[in-house]
Amino acid sequence: MELGIKAWARSRNLSCRVVVIVLLSSPLTKSFQAAMASFKEIVDRARAAFQSGRTRSVEFRKQQLLQLKKMYEENRQTFLDAVHSDLRKPKLEATLFETGFAEKDLDFLLTRVEDCLKPQEVAPVMPQDKCLIYKDPYGVVLVMGAWNYPLQLSLIPAAGAIAAGNAVIIKPSEVAPATAAAIAKLVPQYLDKECFHVVCGGVAETTELLKQRFDYIFYTGSTGVGKIVRDAANKFLTPTTLELGGKCPCYVDQTADLDIATRRILWGKLFNLGQTCIAPDYIMCPKAVEGEIVAKAKEILKEWYGDSLEKNPDLCRIVAERHVDRLAGYLNSGKVVVGGKYDKESKWVEPTILVDVKENSKVMQDEVFGPILPILNYEKYQDAINFIKKGEKPLAMYVFSKQQNVVDAFLSQVSSGGATINDTLHHAANPNLPFGGVGHSGMGAYHGDYTIDTFLHKKSVLIRNFDSAPEKMLSLRYPPYTDEKLKILSA
Ligand code: NAD
User: How far is the CA of 221 from the centre of ligand 1 (A)?
Assistant: First the structure.
């Protein structure tokens, strides 16, 4: 594999990790510009490999997926160390939602790899015809990952694209440099070097990369950059999956078991220290419920983390100092009743609850993406629904209630990417459920079978023969057109 960045790095005796850091902090040099020119070479090589036809064979696809499995098995600790270095991710979270999550998805893909490209026969309109849906890999797929789950967000879509017979270029997020470096180092050691490539770098490099022609782009990240990716894709009419973000509402009513509800909300919020695209962004509840949630949250936080939360290894860190600043800017959007401390140097923001929050306050304008939980008060559930519907369509929605009519009202009236009722995050963990957004929270979906499906074009095929009997019937469509022909054909 000839990485643009890697080649440049080798010429200067640098490791990929160092390169990522250099790229983020220094002006472009001449040799780096040369490396960027080689993005075209990388895409050309991937396309030539795809066009050779070998990525389509079952044996090749299976062997590459097994190689990925071997990569995980032999380097689990390296990956765990990398995500710890980037986000101080605890081992349990990293195992469940990074390495373990990716490995489980891979096992699922392996059960589908034999069959997923086989044409599917469907009923014909004319009995003598044969109708099939052929599954065509798109070609060269670009997978762009985000930093918050830096391993699985790059490698799960990449594995799906491989299972579906595509060539793949992986662009991990530069904001998680240790994981990006691990992916850049290990993927070429295990996968075919012509078909699969890893490219590292920041905004400048990605901007250059996006000038290339891809056959499919799978992007995970913010809605703002999603629009940039979509603009770039438009130039070549490249189809895209956009896995984006936004504010995920969480409604709680007085019928919910408030102890269990508060635990489940805090767990979903504090996993990865709130840096999860489907983390509950804010709570909506009647004022009386709010008091109980706040009291329970104080007890639960003490039970889980003790008295000095900042020293507890079960809580991640905020990915970058600028995000600590951003989160600190939300603290005066309401009254702090839990937490409120932060420290820029150690990239720490304490789990925090805000009450007396106004609908138009700063914390309600952006996706929080951190451990700050604002609470808005609604006495009637319909007012909460109306508020959600005034904003962009959420990636996820949560409802805690024992009242079926309330649950039904949220599910039928609110368009969201997904939803979990009486818990958080879990709809994303079942490979039988498609995971994705709608409107500003994204387009397209993946996980399980949906991942393979995403990377396949469904080609409609009708096969007809030259037998004379059907030809008689078929010839009715030819001119001269008559009322009699019309009558027979439209019967
Ligand atoms: P990020 O900064 O890691 O960016 C994601 C990708 O976009 C990276 O590969 C990065 O290099 C590239 N990029 C960044 N700026 C760019 C630019 N100006 N031009 C071209 N490429 C650029 O991640 P982020 O955007 O900070 O991610 C956080 C967001 O992602 C949140 O909104 C979160 O909700 C969302 N997210 C969504 C999902 C999902 O599955 N729907 C998963 C994780 C995160």
Answer: 2
Are both 76 and 104 inside the same structural domain?
yes
Buried b (16+ CB within 10 A) or exposed e, 150-169: bbbbbbbbbbbbbbbbbbbb
Q: How many Cα neighbours within 13 Å face the side chain of 129?
A: 15
Over residues 297-317, mean pLDDT: 96
- 431 token code pair: 């490979």
Considering the domain architecture, whether residues 239 and 264 belong to the same structural domain is answered as: no
Structural domain contains residue 79: yes
Q: Say if residue 255 is in the same domain as residue 365.
A: yes
Q: 238-290, pLDDT tens digit by residue?
A: 999 999 999 999 999 999 999 999 999 999 999 999 999 999 999 999 999 99
For the chain, how many structural domains are there in total? 2
Q: Which residue has the higher pLDDT, 408 or 7?
A: 408
Q: Do 284 and 209 share a domain, yes or no?
A: no
Residues 193-243 pLDDT 10s: 999 999 999 999 999 999 999 999 999 999 999 999 999 999 999 999 999
Residue in 98, 243, 350, 367 annotated catalytic? 243
Pocket residues: Cβ below 6 A from ligand 1:
144-148, 153, 171, 173-175, 203, 206-207, 220-222, 225, 228, 243-245, 277, 367, 369, 395, 437, 442
d(CA 490, CA 478): 14
The CA distance from 162 to 65, in Å, is 7
Annotated catalytic residue 379 = no
Domain limits for position 432: 249-436
CATH of the domain at 350: 3.40.309.10
Q: Do 117 and 255 belong together in one domain?
A: no
**Residue 329 covered by a domain:** yes
Nearest CA to ligand 1 atom 19: 203
- The per-residue DSSP string of 204-231 comes to HHHHHHTTS--SEEEEES-HHHHHHHHH
Do both 317 and 206 map to the same domain? no
**Residue pair 367/281 in contact by the 8 Å Cβ criterion:** yes
In a domain, 485, yes or no: no
Query: Domain check: are 198 and 311 in the same one?
Result: no
Distance 201 CA to ligand 1 centre (A): 13
Find which of 20-24, 100-104, 349-353, 462-466 is predicted with most confidence, using mean pLDDT.
349-353
CA 222 to centroid of ligand 1, rounded, Å: 4
Per-residue confidence (pLDDT) for residue 216, from 0 to 100:
98
Checking if the pLDDT of 89 tops 60, the result is yes
Catalytic-residue membership of 277: yes
Q: φ and ψ at 307, to 5 degrees?
A: -90, -30
The pLDDT tens digits for 319-330 are 999 999 999 999
